[in-house]
Amino acid sequence: MIRNSAVPFDPVYVSSQTCTSSYYQNHFSHHYTEADLELDSRPPVLNDLQRVKHQHKASMNKKYESLFEGINLQENQTLLNRIYTQLYIIEGESEGVNEEHEVLQMEKCYKTLQDTPINCNDIFNPLYEPGYEEMRREKKDKIKTVLTKGIAGIGKTVSVQKFILDWAEGKANQDVDFIFVLPFRELNLIKDHQYSLHRLLLDFHPELQDMDSKIYSECKVVFIFDGLDESRITLMFSDSQKVSDVTEISSVGLLMSNLIKGDLLPSALIWITTRPAAANQIPSNYINRVTEIQGFNDPQKEEYFRKRIHDEHQASRVISHIRRARSLHIMCHIPVFCWISATVLQNILKQDLSAEIPQTLTEMYIYFLLIQTNMRNQKYEERNPKKLLQSSREVIVKLAELAFNQLMKGNVMFYEEDLRESGIDVLNASVYSGICTEIFREESVIYHRKVYSFVHLSFQEFFAALYVFYCYLHKNSEILKMFLTGKSKTQFENVTLDVFLRGAMNKAVKSKNGHLDLFLRFLHGISLVSNQTLLQDVLIHTQNNPESIKKVIQNLKRGQKNNVSPERWMNLSHCLIEMKDNSVVEKMQVFLTSGKKEKNLTLAQCSTLANMILMSEEVLDELDLTKYKIKSSKEGRLRLLPAVGNCRKAVFPNCNLSDQHCEIVASALQSSNSSLRELDLSNNDLGVSGVKLLCVGMKSPNCQLNILRLVGCNLSDQHCKLMASVLLSSNSSLRELDLSNNDLEVSGVEQLCAGLKSSNCQLNILRLVGCNLSDQHCKLMASVLLSSNSSLRELDLSHNDLEVSGVEQLCAGLKSSNCQLNTLRLSGCLVTEEGCAALASALSLNPSHLRELDLSYNHPGESGIKLLSETLKHLDKLNVDHGGEFRIRAGLHKYACDLTLDPNTANKHLILSDDNRKVTSVVRETQPA
C-alpha cells in the first residue's frame, strides 16, 4: 500500500523532454480499476505514468529515509534528514591511482579543502563559475557520467542516499523520472547469471512490474552504481560485445560496461562511486566528471556530534576531547569514525562523568568492540554469564580470523562462503551488524542472499590485529610462522613478545603501499597491558612483561634507524604513540627548533615531517623553512606546507605558492583549534584567488592570526580590497600587517584605508616599505591617522619617494589628537629640511605619543636636525644616520655611493681605477729562483 503523504510531487507535471503521452498510449500497461481512474479526470495514460512514478518514489523514500548505525535494531534507526551533515565534494581530475593506505592518504592531506564544494544534489550540474558553462557548451559536452572517489567510510553511500531521498521527497532533481540503484556488492551475487537490463531492474525494483521495456529511452533516468571497489565483476571496455537493447540478454558485466560506455541507453545519467584504488577500472574517456568526497571539515565534525548527541553538555564534552586528542581529531574527517567516537564517548560519559577517555586509536576501537558486544548481549537477554562470555568470545575470535584472512587477500566485502571458510555460523554473524555490516534487501528476488563487511576498513585491520595477538598468546603455529624468521620460526612456543612484534614490524615495513601499517599500529597498541586487560574476556589470558615492552619500544626506534622508507618510518612513530611512548614527538620538536642546517631533507622526508607536526599533540612554536636544507627546495617546501595546521608561526618565503596552497593555509586558519599566530608568505605570487582564500580564512571566528607578511607578493588594488574586507570584519584578529615591496596604486591604498578606519580594525603595525607611494597615498594615510577609530601604533613608509608634498600631507594626520603613533619610519623618503620643519610643527601639536622617528637616508641638513632635536625632546630615538644631499635622488640612486680605498687597511691585491668605480684583483706570480 502506497502512502499518499510519503512523497510530495506534482501529478499534473509531465516533462515534454522525458515521457510523451503518445508513447504511453501505445506502450503502457493498464492495471488500475475504474474507481482508481475516476479519482482524476486526466487522461488515463498520464494517471498510469504518474502512479508508477509515485510508486517508485514512495518505495525509494521508504528504503532510503532512515540510516542504521551499528546493529540493525529499531532503536538504532535514525532519519537521514535529521542527522545528515553536508560533506565536502570537490571536482578534480584523477592524478593516477594512489595505492598508499587510505588512512595515511587522509592523514597527510586532511587539511586540503575547496572553498565551494559541490552539493550531492548538483552532481550532474556544471559549476557556476565564470566561463565554466561556456567552456562545456563550446565542447558540446554535458555531464552524463560522474565518478565519485572517496576513502572507505568517507560518506559515498550516504551521499547517494541523500541524493535519492531529496529526489523522492520532491526537493531536488524533479526533472528526473526514475533513479535505479545497482550496488556492486549485490550485483556480485549474480555475476555469473544472464540478464537483460529490463529484467535486472525489475528484480531490483519490483514496483516497476507494470512498465513496458521501452520506457527507459523515453524518460530521464539515473543509474547509480555504488561501490565499484567492491566489484567482483569483470568490466569490459575494449572489443567487448555491444548491447544496445534493454531486452537483450547478456552477462551482468556486459550490461554494466555497455551502460557506462553509452551503447545501452545513451541518454541515461550514470553516477559511479568507488574507493580511489579502484578508480582506474573505468577508462577516463567514458567519464565526464571526476569528484572526490573529502569528508568533514572541522565545523562539520562539530555539527555532526551536536546532531548525533542530543545532550548539549555531553556533546560539548565529546567535541572538546576530540579536539585535544589530535590523532582522533584527524580521523574524525571520516564520518564513520565520528559515529564510532560518538558511540564510545557517549557511552563512557553516561556511565561515569569522571571516567578516563580513550586517547589512542587502539583504545577507541577496543571500547567500541566492548560496547557492541554488550548491545548484542542485551538484545538476546543472555542470563548465564559464563555461557554469554563463551558465545561472545567464539564469535569475536572467528570474526577476527575472517578479518585477518580477508585482509591478506585484499578483500573488504565478504559473502556467506567467505564466512564459512572461517568457521562462522551465518546466523550468528548476522546478529553482529554493529561489528559485521549486513545489507539485506527484502524486496530483491536475487536469492535473498546477504553481504557482509566490517564497519570500516580500519575496523577490519583492528580485528586482524586482535586475531594475530590472540594467536600469539595461544601459540598458533600456522599464524606465528608468517611473522617469524630463523630459529624463532622453529621455536615459536618460546618466542617472546618483543621478538614476535619485531617479526611483524619487519614484514610491515617491506610493504611499498603500507597495506599493513594500520594493522601494525593496532597490534602494538593491543600489546599494552592496559589494553590486554580490557580485552581479557576475548584473549582469556594476558601477558605482563615490562622488560619485553621496553624491548618492543627499542625495536621500533631501531627500525626507524634502518633504511626504511619515510612513510614506513612515520608509521613506526605511530606505533610508538599507540604504545604511549611520546619520545619521538619530543625528538621532532628538538630537531625543528635546533635548525640544523646540515640536515638535508628529501622530498619524502618533508612529507613525513609535515605529517609528524600535524599528528603531534603539542603545537610547534615555529616552522621556518629558511632554516633547513631541502633537496628540490621549492617542491619540498610545498610538501611541508600542510604543517601550518599545527604551529604558531609559519615562515614560507619564495615557495612558489599558488591558490591551491592558499586553500591549505586558509583551512588551518578556519580550524576550530587553530594555533597559527604569525604567517609569512612573502615573495610568492599568490594571485587574487589565493589572497581571496586567505582572507576567507582570516575572517573566520576561529582565526587567531596576529601577524601577516605578504612582502613582494605582486599585490594590486584587488588584493587591497580583499585585505580591507578582513580589517572590516568583526572577527579580524590582525595586529600587524606587512605589505612592503608591492607596487600599490592609489585605488588600492584607498581600499585599504577604508578598512583601517573601521571600528572593527585592531591593526597596530602597518608596513608599506618600498610600495611606490606618492603624496596622494600620504593623503589617504593621513585620513586614517585623523580617524577616531585608528588603532595604529607603528607606521613604516620607508623607501618611498614621498618628498616634501607627501610629508606635508602626512602631517595633517600626525598633528591630530586622534593619532596614536608611537613609531614612524620614513627612511629613504627624500625628506629635506623643509620636510623636517613640517614634521616638527605637526608633532609639536601632538607630542604625547611618538617615541621613535626614523629619518635615516634622507637630507634633513643641520638646521633640520637641530629643529627636530629641540622641538621633539620627548623622543626616545631620533635616527638621522646616513644623511646627505646625495640622498635626494629618486629610486635606488639615493643609495649609491663612491668607492674609496683606505691604504692602511686595503688588500694589496686590489686596484681601483676609472674614477674609483672599478675594482681589479691582481695576483702576482712567484718568480722561480
TrEMBL record:
Record-annotated NACHT domain positions: 144-278
Subcellular locations according to the entry: Cytoplasm
Listed InterPro entries: B30.2/SPRY_sf, ConA-like_dom_sf, Leu-rich_rpt, LRR_dom_sf, NACHT-assoc, NACHT_NTPase, NLR, NLRP_HD2
Record key words, sorted: ATP-binding, Cytoplasm, Leucine-rich repeat, Nucleotide-binding, Repeat
One MF annotation (Gene Ontology) recorded for this entry: ATP binding
Keyword Lyase carried by entry: no
Chief location category: cytoplasm
Short name of any one Pfam family annotated for the protein: WHD_NOD2
Record's GO cellular component terms: cytoplasm
Protein name according to UniProt: NACHT domain-containing protein
Organism for this UniProt entry: Cirrhinus molitorella (mud carp)
